Amino acid sequence: MPPIIIIFSITIGAIIVAEASLSFLGFGLPPDVPSWGGMLSREGRQYMTIAPRLAIWPGLCLTIVVYGINMFGDAIRDLLDPRLRGGGGRYGTSNRRKAGNPRAVRR
């Protein structure tokens, strides 16, 4: 199951980037439908020297969403992977804390 979760999250990010790329090139969604690729293509290129925010914000949002989806898929895999349970995995507790040591420091 963990490899399927990772492949799914990477594929969702790739689909978002592919749609934005096709819209940027003019082959994606129609011009009246908002998309990040269309925003970068039409308004972004036309007014980039006058108002750079028209190109920066859609590109930044696209980057953050794809990165966030990939990190969310990685976190879900870490939580559901039985090999990481109980042994100080990324989100698990450390072995010293399990042993009942009250002085154990949380990492």
Return the string of H and E elements: HHHH
User: What is the residue-mean pLDDT, rounded to a whole number?
Assistant: 79
Instruction: Specify the structural class.
Output: mainly alpha
Number of strands: 0
Cα gyration radius (Å): 21 Å
Distance between the termini: 28 Å
- Approximately how much helix is present in the residues? 55-70%
Sheet of most strands: none
- Estimate the strand proportion: under 5%
- Can you count the helices? 4
**Uncertain residue ranges:** none
The outline comes out as: elongated
Descriptive notes:
The chain is an all-alpha fold. The protein has 4 helices and no strands. It has helices at 2-25, 36-46, 53-80, 95-98. Helix 1 runs antiparallel to helix 3 (53-80). The relative contact order is 0.12.
Briefly say what this structure is.
This protein has 107 residues and is an all-alpha fold. The protein is built from four helices and no strands.
Topology summary:
Blueprint: H1 2-25, H2 36-46, H3 53-80, H4 95-98
List the keywords.
107 residues, mainly alpha, 4 helices, elongated
